[in-house]
Amino acid sequence: MSADLSPRILKGQKSVFRVQLRSQDAGDASQAVYHSRRAHRKSRGGCQKCKIRRVKCDETKPACVRCQKHGVDCTYAPIPRTAPNIPHPDRTAYSLSLTDIASKLDSLLELPQTRGHHQQHHHLHALHHFHSATASTISDKNSFDLMRTRMTHLAFTSPTVMHAVLATSLSHLLHLTPTTSPTRTTYTILESTHWQRSISQYSRELSHGATAQNMDALFSTCLLLTSHTFMLPPSPSNPNPDPKTTSFIYTIDTNPQALNWLTMQSGLRHLLTLAKPYLPQSIWFQTFMSTRSANAFFEDHRPGPVDLHPGLAALCNIVSEDDTESNNPYVWPLRMLTPLLALERSPRSFHHYCNFMGRLMPEFYERLRKRCVPALVVLAWWMALMLAAAGEVWWLGPRLRAELLAVCMFLEGTTDERVRRLLGFPARACGYRLKWEGEGEIDDGDEGGLGVDGDGDGGTGG
Question: Which domain holds residue 435?
Fold first, then answer.
């Protein structure tokens, strides 16, 4: 969530310094009139760019207003571990504070008081890790500050949210913990426990409907669950599992839940519908509104192939104005996907890409379950964009790479030249070498001038 700039930033105002005002007849200098200097606060913790330019920084994080206005990266100098002339906090008071937090956690989560200080330490560590590290990996610029502040405060009154916060943090800690560490066993047990309790309580709360009182807990838990469901289950013994054992393409026949990592992403859309009368009262309201305004091109519901990627439209049999969302399940996904192809291939576009998966319709999911070729190709193109923007993110990268590899493996036996051409972009994104590559049958995937070769400079084609 973008920082609240309004009451503390005097945007557009200049500092008022003490200046001498002379009368028009230039009288005695001793009669000069002075205006006192306006009270102000020096910017000692400003960002690096403002310091270089010697201008006042409002110190908004993660990016100050000046840097946002000029479209430059905003960085702050690291905070030193110790600061001179600043007394260290009293260790007794600090210990009492941690004890108080631990006690609140025990009471909120109804955990047994006899479980010992060892597990208590892990919960405190997980809570701190979420605030200092995990939140930045599961949020965008619109929701980052909100997750670390108001959502964390909400967690101390909502067991559902607190379980989800701790579970998400523990999942992240497991990702970072070496396979040989004895701590992994503890983290695994705690992670499983907290996810189970959070999901159980979330389902029970949702069964009673969304109200003004519970909607923020439901929104917060739903957002945290998206990372959990999308995450590919870790396998310490096999960090590079075979896509044929993990992808829905090869497992959907025996595991009906194999596509849940994608279908669950639409949960927030249903919640928003349920809580619509109370939305302006939600702590998430401004975030939801800013996300919607930033993705206005997702409101394009025109029929037919106009302004769609020509190669994908042909593969999906979108050939005339008679092809609409009601009779062709690929019209809406392509309407969302096509403008994404023209965006910069970087983390800057990540929040735009993410909104795609939350707006897919059941008809498209059904085509994926049946492994229809057009559906697989459309999904592969979106995953290729996501991988370019967030391939190193711990809960996204492994899933995206495994599913992309599975699509390439599943479809590379096709003799349809349209599919062969369109597979080039996804294959390059995940590093898969198609067996016909080099035979002259694969193009660069840049049909219609959409810039899909990774440079992000193309515009939407006709």
Answer: 295-449
For 404-449, the pLDDT digits (tens) are 999 999 999 999 999 999 999 999 999 999 987 765 444 444 443 3
pLDDT tens readout for residues 304-346? 999 999 999 999 999 999 999 999 999 999 999 999 999 988 8
Peptide bond into 78 cis (omega under 30): no
Say if residue 263 is in the same domain as residue 324.
no
Residue whose tokens read 């005695």: 28
Q: What is the number of domains present in the chain?
A: 3
406 within some domain: yes
pTM: 0.72
- In whole angstroms, give the CA distance from residue 141 to residue 153: 19
**Are residues 211 and 312 part of one domain?**
no
* Residue 134 covered by a domain: yes
Q: Give the residues across from 106 on adjacent strands.
A: none
Section 110-115 average pLDDT: 56
Do both 136 and 254 map to the same domain?
Answer: yes
Average pLDDT along the chain? 80
Q: What is the dihedral of CA 35, 38, 44, 46, to 10 degrees?
A: -110
Residues near 113 by beta carbon (within 8 Å), at least 6 away in sequence: 106
- The answer as to whether 81 is a domain residue is no
* Distance from chain centroid for Cα 207: 27
